Amino acid sequence: MSLRKSILCRRISNSVKSVNNHKHGGSGRVVVPTGIGGDVSGELLAESDPVDGWANMLPELLGEIIKRVEESEDRWPQRKNVVACACVCKKWREVTKEMVRSPRNIGKITFPSCLKQPGPRDLPHQCLIKRNKKTSTFYLSLALTPSLMDEGKFLLAARRFRHGAHTEYIISLDADDLSQGSNAYVGKLSSDFLGTNFTIYDSQPPHTGAKPSSSRASRRFASKQISPQVPAGNFEVGHVSYKFNLLKSRGPRRMVCSLKCPLSQENVNGKLIDDSMMKGPESSVSSCTVLRNKAPRWHEHLQCWCLNFHGRVTVASVKNFQLVATVDQSQPGGKGDEDTVLLQFGKVGDDTFTMDYRQPLSAFLAFAICLTSFGTKLACE
Fold this sequence. Notes:
Elements: H1 3-23, E1 31-32, E2 44-45, H2 50-55, H3 59-72, H4 80-86, H5 90-101, E3 125-132, E4 137-142, E5 153-163, E6 166-172, E7 185-191, E8 197-202, E9 235-242, E10 255-262, E11 286-293, E12 297-299, E13 304-306, E14 321-325, E15 343-347, E16 352-357, H6 363-371
Antiparallel strand pairs: 1-2, 3-4, 3-16, 4-5, 5-6, 6-7, 7-8, 8-9, 9-10, 10-11, 11-14, 12-13, 14-15, 15-16
């Protein structure tokens, strides 16, 4: 649109508001005669509520605007402008959500629901985990710069609780509200007495028809049901096991993860997933994925076990690990790409750790797996 037409449209809008205020006393609608400005045909209806004007924008124009914003603001903190578009009104929110869910945007973190969607395929999301030993709290943030000391964009928080013979980690979207009854609650991690077997629970069903776990430890509330909209139980989405180590602390840990990972919208057995199956966490599609830690090699000169973390880990620790896939789900019975690291976790400071993940893991699953590395493993070390 030329500058002259833009100024002309603004004058028309101002004229409509002026007539509306003087003749109708704020009634909200006025009919403008045909022919004003030379570009108006029929009757022009002007709404007094500015939000209605944004909601009535042509779908083609609205889609183009949000598409350009989404493409130009692909990283945080600039990506907050995409969130701002979703806050304009209901119509803008629906268009923005559809744009974010499209296959070309897989792996980008925009809304809280993206934390349970698969990460990027090519380059992993680089994150930081900071530990507060006094409060047994862990904070996950998305790294915004290559610096290992970056504050980052806050994503999730977790707190460790001791319940009898087992330990639980409550995971929340709110760093100040870490309880299962909170609206910010997203899931939890539960361990056995030895700290070698963990179960990951999601607050939402991982797929259509999923039933909450019947075990008492998986319940969110003491009563059976609080509200029809709030599930009283949690849903099992993964297990992490640490294998017995004959060398104890002198040898590396061995771990195996069996997970119900969310599938991306790209394909299922080579076919595109119907968009209606990706509307929300209640109807998302998931598949079973088995991961194991990549075996380190013994360095004769340094006299220690070594893994190549490509500069993302700087402090030697038994907690450090890399996970690779054991089976390619697209080819049943075949081996997966064991050279591609899907999740790596390592220490860079006294209470600072790095976490890098990619498909098929989500930020929620990756964070839960890394939490299992904290604490003493009685049967392993």
